[in-house]
Amino acid sequence: xxxxxxxxxEEKLMTVxxxxxxxxxxxxxxxxxxPKPHQNTVSTYLKILxxxxxxxxxxxxxxxxxxxxxxxxxxxxxxxxxxxSQFCNxxxxxxxxxxxxxxxxxxxxxxxxxxADVKPKKEKKxxxxxxxxxxxxxxxxxxxxRNNL
Length: 149
Description:
Layout: H1 8-20, E1 22-23, H2 25-31, H3 39-51, E2 55-60, E3 63-68, H4 72-87, H5 92-101, H6 121-148
Antiparallel strand pairs: 1-3, 2-3
């Protein structure tokens, strides 16, 4: 799927549209936060978003029903890949360094492991063996009964 970039205004409108998923013009006007744009402005943006492949339309009488074609998650991945490509030389390490430099991401100190946090592996093995023994015991009992018949 080929995704095009959106302008800031188109992205703001798409945040409303992604929540609606399938809608009519009146739904957009009702759900748009204040200050609400004029209906003609929204109509123009909807046409542009259809042309860019973000929306599809279905004619229902005299009105159009719009449906989101490109999910939010897909657009978010597209933006991240573009950002990595344009500003981080396709390096996730550079992105992490940038996030740390901007104090957006703080390195987490490693928490020392306490004995209470660590479960001994022997208990798990014992539990597995108990289950296996129970299965084997029930299997053996069934075999003995069959032999007695």
